[in-house]
Write a structure and sequence with these properties.
Belongs to the ATP-dependent DNA ligase family. The protein has helices at residues 84-92, 120-130, 140-146, and strands at 31-37, 41-45, 67-74, 101-110, 113-114, 137-139. The longest helix has 11 residues, at 120-130. Strands 1, 2, 3, 4, 5 and 6 form a 6-stranded mixed beta sheet that branches. It contains 3 helices and 6 strands. By secondary structure, the protein is an alpha+beta fold. The protein has one domain: 2-Layer Sandwich (D-amino Acid Aminotransferase, Chain A, domain 1), CATH 3.30.470.
């Protein structure tokens, strides 16, 4: 089941701003991806294209039914640096099977409940509980603190 992700919005006059209600996070060069578990794990781009078969390494995750994660799928190269060009080669290739990593930065549904109305810091807390990190799944919040 596809649920549209929240997208970026421009700041007033498209100028940088500083606010207590704003959180800045690292930008990863990857492909926006939703990981959804209604009946089984399915992967969707932000344009509602199901791409589950393209990333079989992302199917091994223990998510509660009714959970939807929002994030990016990345391919890392030298010293763990994300590489968008390599990610696009992997995305389009039927032969190139370099393994990818999903970096979760938000949660849209948790155990069947739409949580998009909650404040971001509460969704980040839910995200921490939604899955166990592995080689293929990491939380952007935890990764941000490591880097």
């Amino acid at each position: 089941m596809f649920i549209s992700p929240m997208l970026l919005q421009y700041a007033e006059n498209n100028l940088p701003f500083d606010s207590e209600s704003t959180r800045c996070e690292l930008k990863f060069d990857g492909i926006r991806l939703l990981v959804s578990k209604m009946d089984r794990i399915r992967l969707y781009t932000r344009h509602n294209n199901e791409v589950t078969s393209l990333f079989p390494e992302l199917l091994d995750i223990d998510l509660s039914a009714g959970t939807v994660l929002d994030g990016e799928v990345i391919l890392t190269v030298d010293q763990g640096k994300p590489d968008f060009e390599e990610m696009m080669i992997r995305y389009k290739s039927k032969r190139d099977k370099i393994k990818v990593t999903f970096v979760a930065f938000d949660i849209i549904k948790y155990k069947g409940i739409d949580v998009t109305g909650l404040p971001l810091h509460k969704r980040k807390d839910l995200l921490e509980d939604a899955f166990v990190e592995s080689l293929r799944y990491v939380s952007k919040w935890k990764l941000h603190r490591i880097l």
